[in-house]
Hints:
Layout: H1 6-23, H2 28-42, H3 48-58, H4 65-108, H5 112-140, H6 144-158, H7 163-179, H8 181-185, H9 189-198, H10 215-228, H11 236-247, H12 253-265, H13 274-315, H14 319-345, H15 349-365, H16 369-387
Helix pairs in contact: 1-4, 2-4, 3-13, 4-12, 4-13, 5-12, 5-14, 5-15, 5-16, 6-7, 6-14, 7-14, 10-13, 11-12, 12-13
Amino acid sequence: MTELKLSDRLKEVALVFLRLGATSFGGPAAYIALMHNEAVVRRKWLDEQKFLDIMGAVNLIPGPNATEVASHLGLIRAGWLGLVLGGLLFLIPGTAAVTVVAWAYVKYGSIPQVSWVLYGVKPAVIAVIAQAVWSLARRGFKNPLLIVVGLAVLGLYIVGVNEILLLLGGALLVLLFYAGRRFYKNRSACFIVTPALLMKVPFIGLAAGGMTISHATLFLTFLKIGATLFGSGYVLLAFLNSEFVETLGWLTHAQVVDAIAVAGQITPGPLFNSAAFIGYLLGGVPSALLAALGIFLPSFLLVALLSRFLPAMRKSWWSGYFLDGVNAASIGLMAAVAIQLGRVVLIDPFTIIIAIVALFLLIKFKVSSVWLVLGGGALGAIYKLVLG
Length: 388
């Protein structure tokens, strides 16, 4: 087979990831499965082992894993321009869709009929989160130590401990337990300790009472989230609650649920696109674009860096221990957030029933989360129309 010219390979990368970005529903596992089918099975850009290496490596860096896989595949196919095109065009359709939904939310969200739909959507989202926690816990809690780490993180987050410290603290605890003195002697430890120490530096935000939105604070807050968020995209809920509800006071818990429900479930692309939704709520289109830039920029830079170190990382002795700890802490955070949001959303028998039925359908019949969210919204509207 004749090798395509660089311009043709760039065009191929652009078309593939623009289409994937416009049709990727169902969460990170679904997105990555679609990329595997395109890049490995159909187009033979790389083999199975290299694809698995990429998947394992992106789990060791913060940010949206699906976007990072897209960027890395673009790099393999078409060099550094391919890295940018692959990641960027995978994001654009979802970010655009989320911004449109945010506009409709701001314009019509106070109309009773729209609130009726969200009334049914939110408990379905709680079910999706709960199912994700259950699924990840079955795979992530490999031994008693990891169970203890996950439960400890759950409890500590609920009482107010910073989620970044919990994620990195859980990872370091597991690493220390298994590695012992080798952790302190091996230079690889510097790669882990340095970010952990940096995250202890407080992040200064605006006073909650004034509600003056600073573009600099908005960008830097999302930049921090994008540069430090490990684990599943649902851990983003913990970060959004901590930064925008508890620290800055710019949003309510209900608005965070709306960002996930409206932006994260019914539009294509990664859950991180919720940043654009929140940005729009706070300052319109410019803030939406700024928020999206902040949260996604670190992933492009980290993939570029990762490409230099991937062969060595595959052989690193500490990476497996570190990743196990991150995953256990992530599961604990997700469970804690599910509990917190459940208190806000599950307010009466109807919402509780929707959540239970949605969870049953997810576990028993593997129903798509998109259909569950749409169904919950329809039921909410019907319930309010008939009985409201």
